[in-house]
Amino acid sequence: MVGTVGEGALIELDLPARPEVVAVARLVVGSLALDDPAFDDDRAADLRLAVSEACTNAVRAQQRRGETAPIQMLYRVRSGWIEVRVRDAGGGFDPESLRKPVDLSRPGRLDHEGGLGVPLIRLLSDTVEFRPIADGTEVVMGFGPLARTGRLTD
Amino acid sequence: MDLRLDVNEHGDWSVLRVGGEVDVATAPKLREQMISLVNDQRYKLIVDLGGVDFIDSTGLGVLIGALKRVRSHDGDLHLVCHDDRIVRVFEITGLDKVFRIHDSLDAAVVP
User: Most CB contacts within 10 A, which of A31, A55, A59, A85?
Assistant: First the structure.
């Protein structure tokens, strides 16, 4: 764990792949957003949600494989921009397969309890990449201060 | 992270008050409670999210599952929520069209 919060600074957290750590991952991004006057409380809430989804996916992917390596969280901050990277060793996945979210307004919608995480990340971040890395996935999310509009069903 | 749950009766309805953060760590506790209510044949549920500070898609998934269970018994599940940030999560996911969301418990129990 290194770094201090400041221009261009990097915070790196190695978190055990357990559900309880997701709260820590979003606490950090929430604090970074609230520390930058460009980000208001509502936008900070968006960041917390997107990071929660990405970290949850990472933890679940590793738990499915019984992989005990830590989840790596990297936070980079510059004025008016926050970048968060989530690296897992969960075996990787095809993000394109989740590009179209479940249409929850259709009949049969209640058969789907999951599948909202990646679409939410795409909706709430200004930039996002899902990169294959050794044995897993790196999600790179970039956030500016303006709230994103739209809905998953648009 | 703690999740607070409290159940009481309000006319025909069972009201589950939820407080804290609903995510992958705490959602199993919420799911268990909702399954327990349905097993007790309580099919008219109101989930009061007034004390919820945060909910993500894992929490939404639990509510969708509970709605499915009560509907299979001709029941219903309504939500109470007045926090704009929590309501926004339902709006951006389209779930505001799936759940009836009321801004107060009194509004939720009106037939």
Answer: A55
